[in-house]
Amino acid sequence: MNLNPLPSVILEDAVRQLSRLPGVGSRSALRYALHLQRCSEAEVRDFADAVLRLKTHLHECRHCHNISDTEVCPVCSSPKRQRNIVCVVENIQEVMAIENTRQYRGLYHVLGGVISPVDGIGVGDLHIASLLQRVREGVPDPVEEVILALPTTMEGDTTSFYISKQLDGTQVKITTLARGVAIGDNLEYADEVTLGRSIAGRVPFNR
Amino acid sequence: MNLNPLPSVILEDAVRQLSRLPGVGSRSALRYALHLQRCSEAEVRDFADAVLRLKTHLHECRHCHNISDTEVCPVCSSPKRQRNIVCVVENIQEVMAIENTRQYRGLYHVLGGVISPVDGIGVGDLHIASLLQRVREGVPDPVEEVILALPTTMEGDTTSFYISKQLDGTQVKITTLARGVAIGDNLEYADEVTLGRSIAGRVPFNR
Fold first, then answer.
1. pTM of structure
2. Does residue A184 fall inside a structural domain?
3. Which residues contact B5 (CB under 8 A, 6 or more apart)?
4. Residues on chain B touching A13 (C-beta within 8 angstroms)
């Protein structure tokens, strides 16, 4: 459906703004706009306020750059976390995924992306300098292990390699996530690269 | 991915609001929220304002209930439209679809839905009274033809039937859209109901 011309400039504006959301086309944006138009004014005001507060009230944790309501995030300020392990991730979605496993009790460092010359994202656009400073100077806490949990893409691997190179000469232990066939997956259907990595990285069998 | 607990109440609020949009789940809502959080404050303010203006600045046309920036919509106020034909549609999306054909030069009447006892939508919840008044009293213009362009569902058919019954005793001509196999469609793949309707409603061949 051709959306031009919409019957109203105000509707057109709203559709344009809503279609800026990732993965939202003009048809979905129109559906969202018409839905909002049918809501009560109080509901739409709550909607707009909640969105605006993302900019006006949300902090980025001073230490790990995770999203937080406070200057230091709940993970960094928790006395129960192991403070000498830092898991380096691309975005806060990965923090949430790892937190949901309940297997990790260390801290995080959110880079805000990975090095990608094609997209014009360089070292300076990411929170890499603060990571290096955190490890080298041991502030706020001495770091003994850095877990590189970045995506297994060219960009992710480049970023991991860059960080590990920059930490040459420090005493810090650098590790990465184990990769292999997922629990419950049939070997027959696993992709070759993953299965190959599972074999190369085989571990002692627990009897 | 389990989204609970999110690291921030503000983020949680925004995700809850965004997931109220039709067809948006919590995972998409999180993606939208994180996208907005990465935008500049000015951009997010523009976004929130455009959405809010849907309630504060948008009008419903006094005559046809279409969405409009003005009290009377561009279609109803255009001197180029044929004022004695009114096409009755469910929502403004249908107005846009019909306008895009450039085949229709009459006016519209947007019901805002169809009669649906299951969803608790009755005659009083729709702009049916104003349609009947428009036809019976000829205000703002005398109406000679009403085109019922409602969906071919039980609810749409019920609504069409109700309107046509209410207009018994008036001189108005009541028509509906031609239904049949779409232009370019192969008969082999057309559904039986549509093909049956195409045959029953066959029209003279233009030689």
1. 0.76
2. no
3. B12
4. 50, 53
